[in-house]
Every structure is written in C-alpha cells, then in structure tokens.
UniProtKB/TrEMBL annotation:
InterPro entries: Aminoacid_DH-like_N_sf, Malic_N_dom, Malic_N_dom_sf, Malic_NAD-bd, Malic_OxRdtase, NAD(P)-bd_dom_sf. Residues 271-543 form the Malic enzyme NAD-binding domain. GO terms for biological process: malate metabolic process. Residues 83-261 form the Malic enzyme N-terminal domain. This is Aminoacid dehydrogenase-like protein.
Amino acid sequence: MSSNSKDTKPRVYKVALRGEALMDHPRWNKGMGFTAKEREDFGLTGRLPHMINTIDDQCQRAFDQLSMHESDLRKNDFMQSMRSQNWVLYYALMHRHLKELMPIIYTPTEADAIAQYSHLFRRSEGLYLSFPDQENMEIDFLEQVAGRDIDLIVCSDGEAILGIGDQGVGISTAKASVYTIIGAIDPSKTLPVALDVGTNNEDLLKDPLYVGWREKRVRGEAYDKFIDRFVQLVRKHKPHSLLHFEDFGVTNAQTILERYRDQHAVFNDDVQGTGAVTLAALSAAIGVTKSKLADQRIIIFGAGSAGLGIAHQLRDAIIAESVDAGEEISREDANKRFWLVDRFGLVNDALQNAGKVRVGTEEFVRAENWVGEVHTNEHGSVSLLDVVKHVHPTVLIGTSTSPGTFTEEVVRTMSEHVERPIIFPLSNPSRLVEVQPQKAFEWSSGKALLATGSPFADIKTEKGKYVIAECNNALIYPGMGLGAILSAGKSLTDRMIIAGAQRLAQLAPCFNTHDPSDALLPDFGDSPAVNFEVGVAVCERALEDGVAGNGWEEWYEGDKTLKKGWKEEVRKRAQERAWMPVYGEYIYDENGEK
Ligand SMILES: NC(=O)c1ccc[n+]([C@@H]2O[C@H](COP(=O)([O-])OP(=O)(O)OC[C@H]3O[C@@H](n4cnc5c(N)ncnc54)[C@H](O)[C@@H]3O)[C@@H](O)[C@H]2O)c1
Ligand SMILES: O=C(O)C[C@H](O)C(=O)O
Ligand SMILES: [Mg+2]
C-alpha cells in the first residue's frame, strides 16, 4: 500500500513573526526545536533555555508529561492544550502513538470533553459564529480566512453530538484535527466553525460558566436563514473548499445536505461518512457469509441521521451491485430489504397513520404488522425482538444511542435463524453501545460478525483472538475529504462516496482472507495509509465520471477520455499535498507569512 508518510523533507517558509508572537502561534511555534540560527534571526535567544531538542526529544517529553495524567479526560485536556501551542509537536505525537491516542482525542473521550467544554475552556480555536452577532458574520469570517488558502471547513451546530445530544458549542475542532492526523490535510488549510444557535440543554442554560449563547435553540426560518448566510459566505469566499457538517439534529442534517449538495462540495459525516464506513464493513462481512448485498435482510435500529444515512447508502449499493450483475433491482424492491425500528418500534403503516413516522423514513415504511402474533413494546407498537422473530435478519445495525437494547434474547433469536449474524452496534460513545461485543459473541456462540462505533478490546477465543472492527466514520471521512479536495469538483457525488467505501472494504483484512476472526475493517493504526488510498479512489472516480474541477482539464483527450498516466498523476498530487508533522525551515521576511 502506498503511504503518504515518507515525504518528510523540511519545507522552507518566509515568516514575518518574531519573538513572542512567533512562539505564541501554534502553526509556527517549535518550542525547544528552534535551531540556533532561527533563535538568532527571530529574536528568540534569550527566550529559550540553551539546549536545542529534536522533535523526537520533544515527543518523548510530551509523552512523559501526558502519562502523568491518570484520567482519559485529563489526557484529552493535555492534548488539547498542546494543540493550541504547537501543531507539529501535537501531530508528531499523534503519529507516533496513533492507536493509543485516538481514543483520547476522539471517541469515546471526546464526548466527555465536549460535555465539559465550558469548564475545560482555556483558549478559543477556530471560528465561532453566534446567532445574535450574525450581522457581523462576513467580517468575522473574513477576519479568519481572508488571504488564507482554505481547503476544508468543518462546522457543527452541536445539536446531536455523538450520542449525548445537545451540547451547544464544541465538536468541530476534534473532527477537523482528525483530517490532519489521518488524511494529512494541512491544518493551516482547515477551519473548524461552531455555529451557535442556542441550546435546549437545560443544564447548560443554567450553568453560569456556559460559554455559548444562553438562549433556546433557534428553529424554522430564522435558523435556515442563519445557516444559509454562512453557506453563502463559504461559497462566495472559499468556492473550492469542502464543507463538512457534523452532528446536526436529524431533520436539519438531511435538509441541509439536500439543499446545498448541488451548489457546493458538502459532506454530512453522520449521514454519508457513517453510511460509507458501514457499507465497507458489511461488504467484508458478506465475503465471509458468501452472500450478496441484495440477499440481506437488514434491521436498522435507530432511524436518525446515522441510521437513515446507512439505509440510503446500503440501498444505493444494492442497486449498483444489481446493475453491475445485469439483474437490475428497482429502488422500491431494494427498499424492501430494510426494516427500520425507531423509538416507537417498527416503522410501519400503523405508526405512519398515527403520525409518528419521521420525514425521510417514508420509503421504508413496512405494511406488515403481524397483528395478533406480536408483543408490543412500551409504546404499543412492534418491538425489535418481534421484528427479529419475524424477519430473521441477516444484519442488525444499531444507531439508537440506547445502550443494552440488543438483549440476550434478541441476539440468541437472531442467531437461531442465520448461520453468521452480522451485528454492528454503532452508537457512540462506548457506554451507549447497543450490546457489548463480548456478550454478542457469547450469545451467538461465537458466530456473530461484529463491528462497533467506538474501540473495543479483542475477544480471546480458544483459537486465539477475535478482532472487533471499529466502524467509525473517522476511518473514511478524512479520505473522502482528501479525495474531494484533490478532485476540486463542485460536489462530492454518491458515486465518489461508493468508490471510497469500496476501496476501504478491499483493504480490510477479512475482505481478502474471508476468515471471520480477522477484522471486518482495517485497523485504526493503519488509517493514514488506508485513507490515502480512499482519497485516491474518490478522486479517480471523480475523474472517470467527468466531475473533477480546476486543474484536471489538461488530463482529458477530447471530452471524456483520460490521458495515459492519469492514475499516476492522482497519486502524485495526493503525495505532494500531504502535510507531515515535521518542522519547516524559517527565514525571516517582513513580507512573509504570519
Ligand atoms: N460509528 C459511527 O461512525 C457513528 C456515526 C454517526 C453516529 N453514530 C452514533 O449513532 C448514534 C445515533 O446518532 P445520530 O446522529 O443518528 O442521532 P439521531 O438522534 O439522529 O438518531 C438517533 C435515533 O435513535 C432513535 N432512538 C432513540 N432511542 C431509541 C430506542 N430506545 N429504540 C430505538 N430507537 C431509538 C431516535 O428516535 C433517533 O431517531 C449516536 O450514538 C452516534 O454517536 C456513530
Ligand atoms: O464522532 C464520532 O466518533 C463518530 C460519529 O460522527 C458520531 O457522531 O458518533
Ligand atoms: Mg458525528
């Protein structure tokens, strides 16, 4: 697998900052890593102890300091603080301890850090756009982006953070830094944005230290106009950037995606990223069961942003697979492979008549009620267990935020009817998982094929171990972003997303060996190299489909045919673009960068 991690040549920068201003800027700061010449040229000699450290020395010192903190939340806080002081050191440390530190800076610890955001707050990062200050939005936006080359904007309105609900301001910085850690996107070209439209979280509203706008969430037209103002600014000033939406409430997530997807390159991670990574894991799992996507009976438990995103992605893949096989399945028929179960039970016509079916789920409403044969749940409608009993699903996916809902009876019943039950409890953080993987393994007598949303330890088995794949959108979205940026197209199309998911699946250990004890997805430790490949695949598809933008025209002969060597060119551009955490060489220049 080609990796982007070999290119570690130091770059030369002309820098206009001196002294404290240089050391205070996380992009430029090198701490004890400034060379003797830089110390002289930039007025740093008296500001630093005598020794000069290598980045390895600095990583060692930082890691030792990190290890002194006992709780994961304190470690997260330490890492956050390091990121606001020295980017190269932060990312170099992440590269060296990727697997160990991802759960610290990202899921599951990030959930606690976001819940505590106002209390852990020290220094702002990125852009904060608040509803009451919207008249100033363009000025605030330009203050941060004018003259900057921005590839990627990650925004959130904080309404549905992971599985922990409305948290006001907070997630976009962690999500943006994962683009750099895994996708090698230059952090100076990313912008995290908190869109503060208030919060309905009573605890936050009552908290005297809450840092966001202390009002109830703005809804309806006023909300739409605020979001539109922001999106139009992005389109006007950064037309070639990718705009990533994270953790919006389910209705807004779908609406915003549909509204803007033909106008700008937009990406909703919870919908599309989750759909793509789940498709990849499922493709590997059905390699073990030696079946086709179209043969599956799929229950999705929790029909919100993630659940619906998965349903759409898998449905589209079923149709695409059938077209390739020359036996086209209609959209209506493909929808019949799915049973959605939400808070009120099976999404069926009885629920629809009672007005309890969410917009976006209509296509999947089932006619069957199995009246008389079923136990109803506490809402008087068909429960998950009864759907399992009647449908005999091959696949059970959890995106419900409701822990423990894949009970022993659910797993055992599912296992009675299929040889290899495919069970993906994807809710984050770990404490919200629908079933502990160890339990699902036991209750299925070791037959279940498992993937979870947060990291879980391997399961010890008689033969060795069973590896639990981490099916988290972070395993694919950095590559999706890289591919979209590389292709410079006006949109990130469904076909580009499917190409990325297919490449991810091909890189899963289990996809090639068909050995069920191998993981259904690549290891997070390999995610930088894996996402490089995903990025290449996404960009290749954009070129093949003629939707790539600026800079690719010269690679077409006539209208459609690509010139020889185009694939090598995609890889070359991806490699050249990769940002690596190594210090550059600085030359003082009063007209240089700041
Ligand atoms: N693994 C990943 O990559 C990934 C990606 C996105 C989301 N997620 C996780 O998935 C979960 C859902 O996220 P989301 O953004 O879709 O949230 P969401 O709020 O949009 O959706 C949750 C859905 O679950 C339903 N629900 C709640 N309690 C239920 C219950 N007891 N039974 C059945 N349904 C119930 C809700 O009505 C809602 O429709 C979160 O825990 C999130 O962290 C994981
Ligand atoms: O952020 C994550 O860990 C994955 C996902 O986007 C989620 O909302 O849970
Ligand atoms: Mg999310």
